[in-house]
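Suppose a classmate hands you a notebook page containing two proteins, each written out with its sequence and a corresponding row of structure tokens. How would you begin to make sense of it? This section walks through that situation. The first entry is reproduced here exactly as it would appear on such a page.
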Amino acid sequence: MSDSYIDLVNSPLGATLAKKLGLPKPVRLRRHAPDRPLTAGPVLVLSDDASRPDADAIAAALLPWDLDVRRDTHLPEEQRWGAVVVVLTGITHPGDLVTPVLALGTTLRRFARSGRVVTVSRAAGADLDPAEAAARQGVDGFLRSLAKELRAGATGNGVVLGDGVDVTAPSALGALRFLLSAKSAFVDGQFLHVSGPGADNPSWERPLEGKVAVVTGAARGIGVEIARTLARDGARVVGVDVPASGDSLATVMNEVRGTALQLDVTAPDAAERIARHAQERHGGLDIVVHNAGILRDKLLANMKPEQWTDLLAVNIEAPLRMNETFVELAHEGALGRSPRLIGLASTSGIAGNRGQTNYGAAKAGMIGMTRALAPVLAEVGGTANAVAPGFIETEMTARIPFATREVARRLNSLQQGGLPVDVAEAIAFLASPAAGGINGEVLRVCGQNWVGQ
């Protein structure tokens, strides 16, 4: 659904009116296109003194991506920064933040539209010296706060490395590239934790070449964009949806040159049928995206029992049951060499939402399931992750009353709703080889929604 308010405030008359009235002025976000540069301008790499060797290594790693990489804050007057990478992997005291953070501050007035700030730091832990733990955790508060200050579609996100992960490991660089790119347009104020090295992408444009992916709920909305994006990245897609959506499903699968499977995911043998179809039609199965879901919104005092039971059956019980089979297949070597299980959670499952006690429970359940599956999948070289969308422009949100919809759109740092493709880009990244070191994570695609983290 089009956001006419963005069109208005970006017109000459509307911009003047918005300024006089103090109204929000969101911009159209820069999104991925194959012929578009990775960033909107030069990339500055900053660090504290202790992190300088890691910063040098990251700067060198960025050069093959056709980026203009700088190590000082000088920039010709006619240029704008496309991104700043702040490397903080060596900090041991909160005072170590001062120099690089203040240097970053001098660049912010010269950011291009949809610019990027990405921190690279190490995980805080209870086994650290208190000062070092304080410094590492301080990055979290600094970055999330900064993200709320950025304007004109700019975002602030972070890559957090496990202590054994090198800054140039494939998953470290893969996370950095994703957060620098236009593929992360609606990801803001978030951290990607990298716990392992991962594997190099065979191609940044088609990292899923040769992979087979199943997407449930693929006939409409976000599911359609997931199928399109996975296919764009090289995957052969099996789209799954209920028989009543058969015509829509066939249309989508014909578009992406995939195959359609009409199936109710609550069927006891759903996973077996999906795996059999993928094996017979495509020779295997590597990626499963649990996207199918329903809404049964109602205040709890007015909610009927079936509104709870029906929603739980589709949104969490079906993925739980299917994953039991998929994990068995993975341990038998029948689910690809690096299987990926990716679930659709929601910010409602993190911070709650009025009238959605059932939906919030199911989506929080998706998060719990993902974290429990992560070590199980790691045993066979796989991963389990989740993506938690915020307000996304879909047919469902288009039915929200106008005033409520407008408020919901503006309640994030980017002051607008996301698009289904924003969710799909996050899923495609987590499905890629370079994300192999990211496991058990919940990546919010919400524009830094002002609820929860």
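The notebook's second entry, a different protein, reads as follows.
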Amino acid sequence: MKNIAILTGGDSAEYDISILSANTVLQHLNPELFKGYIIHLKDDKFTVLIKKIKIEVDKSNFTFEVENKRISFDAIFMALHGSPAENGLIQPYFDNLNIPYTSCNAKVSALTFNKYECNKKLKELGFNCATSFLYKKENNIVEQEIIDRVKLPCFVKPNGAGSSFGISKVKKKEDLTKAINSALQHDNKVLIEQFIDGIEISCGVYTNQNNIQALPITEIVTENEFFDYQAKYEGKSQEITPARISKKLTIEVQKLTTDIYKAMELSGICRIDYIIMNEKPYILEINTIPGFTEESIIPQQVKSANLKLSVIFESCLVDSKE
């Protein structure tokens, strides 16, 4: 029986979703193989709740004591969205303790969390991404310069945040500054992207015994202007799995997803979002620690593939990197 720390909490706007994801992971870990403990990280402090008593985890060795017994961990299941897991800040801590984890390493996480640099890297590798512009907080906003590059309408989003916090769709030049200021609430850098008009889809991917496997594709149809927080978590969207696209395009996107996973050196369960315009997939973003809540896309795709979350989670823990 292996002890698994399910890491949750964090410092970002995705805190609440991380808690829900961790609970899903705990519910679906195979109890014959794993003993799961939800480890909560907040303000640089790890805690675990045992029989309604909060116990602090010793940061020097990532262990804790309960009923005169010292509990240590065989692996970390990353269920913490945003900082400090999805941006790669926490991984070196576990690397130093030689505890394997189910997410990408620090370098890959930092790159994928930085949307602008990630898109740049993807383009260098020959993948399709939207035209983009990076605005930094200390710079002046030159609206016309931005519009000349990305055109209208465009999307304005924090360069390093998830769950669609601080994202705006801008249709008029006079709304651009307001949208940038909204994104600045979540990050000091703002990504302004060309609007790609098409079908929004998402494809999960994971490693199973060193084989990269893509999950069924989900089509996202939102009542809102785009797939924002409300659409993701408050039922303002329809998520259709499998997506209503041709078999040929389905195979192409699944192969593209596994190619990206390999080329970007991803690990664990990831999700890659796309827009299909004129039968051509454009990468929106790479989610290295996607949501596992009951409303999240990955559980829907796992169900559609006639798989069980417990099996997927087990394969990620077996393949977790030190």
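A careful reader of the second entry would note: Residues 2-102 form a domain with the Rossmann fold fold (CATH 3.40.50.20).
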